[in-house]
Amino acid sequence: MSLYITDECINCDMCVPECPNDAITMGKVYYEINADSCTECEGFYDEPQCIPVCPVDCILPVA
Ligand code: SF4
Ligand code: SF4
Fold it and tell me: How many domains, in total, are found in the chain?
Protein backbone atom coordinates (compact mmCIF):
# COMPACT_ATOMS: atom_id res chain seq x y z
CA MET A 1 0.00 0.00 0.00
CA SER A 2 2.84 2.37 -0.61
CA LEU A 3 5.04 3.56 -3.42
CA TYR A 4 8.77 4.13 -3.67
CA ILE A 5 11.07 6.37 -5.69
CA THR A 6 13.89 4.84 -7.72
CA ASP A 7 17.40 6.23 -8.12
CA GLU A 8 16.32 7.70 -11.47
CA CYS A 9 14.79 10.59 -9.52
CA ILE A 10 16.12 13.94 -10.74
CA ASN A 11 15.09 15.82 -7.57
CA CYS A 12 12.71 18.06 -9.49
CA ASP A 13 10.36 18.53 -6.53
CA MET A 14 7.20 18.15 -8.64
CA CYS A 15 5.74 15.31 -6.61
CA VAL A 16 6.14 16.87 -3.16
CA PRO A 17 3.19 19.32 -3.21
CA GLU A 18 0.90 16.67 -4.69
CA CYS A 19 1.09 14.39 -1.67
CA PRO A 20 -1.84 14.74 0.75
CA ASN A 21 0.08 12.85 3.41
CA ASP A 22 3.37 14.76 3.22
CA ALA A 23 5.01 11.40 2.61
CA ILE A 24 7.63 12.64 0.13
CA THR A 25 10.81 14.25 1.42
CA MET A 26 14.35 14.78 0.21
CA GLY A 27 16.54 11.86 1.19
CA LYS A 28 20.31 11.62 1.26
CA VAL A 29 20.63 11.58 -2.53
CA TYR A 30 17.15 11.81 -4.03
CA TYR A 31 13.58 12.08 -2.89
CA GLU A 32 12.06 9.31 -0.81
CA ILE A 33 8.56 8.16 0.11
CA ASN A 34 7.88 7.34 3.74
CA ALA A 35 6.22 3.93 3.52
CA ASP A 36 4.44 4.51 6.82
CA SER A 37 2.79 7.69 5.52
CA CYS A 38 2.02 6.81 1.90
CA THR A 39 -1.48 5.40 1.49
CA GLU A 40 -1.35 5.48 -2.34
CA CYS A 41 -3.62 8.49 -1.78
CA GLU A 42 -6.47 6.37 -0.44
CA GLY A 43 -8.98 8.54 1.35
CA PHE A 44 -8.06 11.58 -0.74
CA TYR A 45 -7.98 10.54 -4.40
CA ASP A 46 -8.80 7.52 -6.54
CA GLU A 47 -5.25 7.32 -7.91
CA PRO A 48 -1.80 8.18 -6.59
CA GLN A 49 -1.23 11.86 -7.32
CA CYS A 50 2.55 11.77 -7.42
CA ILE A 51 2.91 9.30 -10.31
CA PRO A 52 1.48 11.41 -13.18
CA VAL A 53 3.50 14.52 -12.31
CA CYS A 54 6.86 12.75 -12.29
CA PRO A 55 8.70 13.66 -15.50
CA VAL A 56 10.93 10.57 -15.41
CA ASP A 57 8.37 7.98 -14.22
CA CYS A 58 10.49 6.89 -11.30
CA ILE A 59 7.68 6.39 -8.75
CA LEU A 60 6.69 2.74 -8.58
CA PRO A 61 4.55 0.45 -6.43
CA VAL A 62 6.39 -1.56 -3.80
CA ALA A 63 6.50 -5.10 -5.21
S1 SF4 B 1 0.77 7.85 -3.65
FE2 SF4 B 1 -0.21 9.62 -2.70
S3 SF4 B 1 0.21 9.35 -0.52
FE4 SF4 B 1 1.68 8.06 -1.60
S5 SF4 B 1 3.49 9.35 -1.89
FE6 SF4 B 1 2.23 9.54 -3.75
S7 SF4 B 1 1.01 11.36 -3.40
FE8 SF4 B 1 1.79 10.71 -1.39
S1 SF4 C 1 8.57 14.04 -9.46
FE2 SF4 C 1 9.86 12.22 -9.82
S3 SF4 C 1 11.87 13.04 -10.41
FE4 SF4 C 1 10.73 14.71 -9.44
S5 SF4 C 1 11.35 14.66 -7.29
FE6 SF4 C 1 9.46 13.45 -7.48
S7 SF4 C 1 10.18 11.35 -7.80
FE8 SF4 C 1 11.90 12.69 -8.20
Answer: 1
